[in-house]
């Protein structure tokens, strides 16, 4: 049962209300500190890039090193979270939970192998073998699937968005493909390789890409400023 | 040009941008701001509405841009959109799921979802909704693909730093007949997203997501700031070209 403000009513309502207010006050203060720390760290790192000063450069390196260490620990937290998500899937016997079991088993086995390899070099061969003969081929095969996926996507593009830009997109893709690959029995398509090498790649594609990158850079500046001003806070809750 | 001069130019751009942002955020417009029409965001709102009505789930893929690299900006833009979409779907049955390929972004996505859960009616916050699905590009894609397939997802938003693996992710979403909106700061990924996704975002459009989803006045101000800087850059490029043609430069 709650009152109109959402506070609990009844025997402990007063205590509940004060405890909520105290919690809210502590949360506000801690949030304020978090914002201040984030803004100060951001400005110091930025100043280290703009002004050549041993103190600022040292401070920038220190803060960046701290960030790198925290990122390293974040990997452990991320993996723990991954195990938690898959354990939940197994407990609930959800669809595909067999794969979750396989994932957890191989994650533990790889971790143990990597840990033991530090002390027993002979085990290091098995560890690197797991990477070279399982992980790498799987990723390479996904890369192979990519080519098929993109061909299919190109066909679907015309079905979904039949307009001038889509047609231009596909014609350019085909021109670049034909212009950069030798065709069987014909070799290079006369004139096309020159067109791709001298006009499409260095002039049209590069200038377009440069324009897009300038836009992305402006967006990045705006994003960075919003985080520095504390308007966008992807940290510390609210 | 020496490092000192480059540093001073960088500081000048930063200062001008900051001043413009502050001025436009405190300036009270007489009429509401008018934005360029980006149909992708309008369709995203419709898709979010369907997610709430259907009782299905929204998936946001935040890419694999590390927080200590310049590519983090697109991941942070994805987090801002995640927060906004989590709020928009708070009346639905199921909170959104966020996947990422960087541990730092994954932790921030959990934090964002936790903050959004405080204003939603979906019950207690579940930390497994912000997932790190893999640390290499393809393991990330493979891990996120199972989320797209198994979690009753009806709308997918890909917003962050991606590479060629974006094709696998979007293809998996297309196979489930779901809505797909995709944006990245990477040129290769943008080309792939244009061909594969239903609603691609080109260039800096991914950084405009906040302004188009009513995330606050500063987002609108930052769009105005970007436009002014863009016209300034166009002016400088044209002036440089004219001076070069005239033989002065």
List keywords for this structure.
heterodimer; A: 238 residues; mainly alpha; 0% strand; extended; disordered N terminus; B: 249 residues; alpha/beta; 6-stranded parallel β-sheet; globular
Q: Could you explain the architecture of this structure?
A:
The complex is a heterodimer of chains A (238) and B (249). The N terminus of chain A is likely disordered. The two termini of chain A are 26 Å apart. In chain A, helix 1 crosses helix 2 and helix 5 packs across helix 6. Chain A is an all-alpha fold and 238 residues long. In chain A, 11% of the residues are buried. The radius of gyration of chain A is 28 Å and the shape is extended. Chain B is an alpha/beta fold and 249 residues long. Chain B is 56% helix and 13% strand. Chain B has a 6-stranded parallel sheet with strand order 3-2-1-4-5-6, with helices on both faces. In chain B, helix 1 crosses helix 9 and helix 3 packs parallel to helix 4. The two termini of chain B are 15 Å apart. In chain B, 50% of the residues are buried. Chains A and B meet through helix 1, helix 2, helix 4 and helix 6 of A and helix 1, helix 3, helix 4, strand 3 and helix 5 of B.
Summarize the entry for a quick read:
Chain A has 238 residues and is an all-alpha fold.
């Amino acid at each position: 049962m709650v009152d109109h403000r959402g506070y609990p009513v009844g025997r402990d309502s007063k205590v509940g209300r004060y405890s909520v207010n105290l919690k809210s006050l502590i949360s506000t203060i801690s949030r304020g500190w978090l914002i201040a720390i984030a803004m100060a760290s951001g400005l110091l790192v930025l100043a280290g890039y703009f002004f050549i000063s041993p103190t600022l450069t040292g401070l920038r390196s220190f803060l960046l090193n701290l960030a790198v260490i925290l990122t390293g620990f974040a990997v452990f937290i991320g993996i723990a979270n991954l195990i938690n998500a898959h354990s939940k899937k197994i407990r609930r016997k959800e669809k595909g939970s067999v794969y979750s079991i396989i994932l957890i088993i191989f994650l533990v086995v790889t971790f143990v192998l990597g840990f033991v390899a530090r002390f027993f070099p002979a085990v290091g061969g098995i560890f690197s073998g797991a990477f070279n003969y399982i992980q790498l081929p799987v990723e390479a095969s996904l890369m192979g699937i990519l080519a098929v996926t993109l061909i299919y996507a190109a066909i679907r593009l015309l079905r979904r968005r039949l307009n001038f830009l889509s047609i231009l997109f596909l014609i350019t893709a085909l021109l670049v493909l034909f212009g950069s690959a030798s065709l069987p029995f014909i070799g290079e398509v006369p004139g096309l390789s020159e067109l791709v090498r001298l006009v499409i790649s260095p002039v049209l594609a590069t200038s377009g890409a440069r324009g897009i990158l300038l836009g992305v850079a402006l967006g990045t500046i705006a994003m960075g400023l919003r985080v520095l001003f504390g308007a966008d806070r992807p940290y510390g809750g609210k | 040009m020496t490092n000192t001069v480059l540093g001073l130019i960088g500081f000048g751009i930063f200062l001008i941008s900051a001043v413009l942002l502050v001025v436009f955020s405190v300036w009270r417009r007489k009429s509401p701001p008018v934005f360029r029409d980006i149909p992708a965001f309008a369709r995203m709102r419709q898709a979010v509405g369907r997610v709430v009505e259907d009782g299905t789930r929204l998936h946001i893929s935040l890419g694999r841009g590390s927080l200590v690299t310049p590519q983090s900006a697109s991941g942070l833009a994805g987090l801002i959109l995640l927060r906004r979409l989590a709020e928009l779907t708070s009346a639905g049955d199921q909170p959104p799921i966020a996947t990422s390929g960087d541990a730092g972004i994954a932790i921030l996505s959990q934090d964002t979802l936790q903050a959004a859960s405080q204003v939603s009616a979906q019950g207690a916050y579940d930390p497994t909704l912000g997932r790190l699905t893999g640390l290499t590009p393809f393991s990330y894609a493979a891990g996120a693909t199972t989320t797209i397939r198994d979690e009753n997802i009806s709308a997918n938003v890909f917003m962050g730093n991606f590479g060629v693996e974006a094709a696998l992710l979007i293809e998996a979403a297309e196979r489930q007949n779901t809505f797909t909106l995709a944006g990245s700061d990477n040129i290769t990924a943008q080309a792939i997203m244009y061909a594969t996704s239903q609603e691609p975002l080109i260039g800096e459009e991914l950084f405009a997501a906040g302004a188009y989803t009513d995330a606050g006045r500063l987002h609108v101000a930052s769009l105005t700031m970007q436009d002014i800087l863009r016209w300034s850059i166009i002016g400088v490029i044209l002036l440089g070209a004219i001076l070069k043609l005239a033989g002065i430069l």
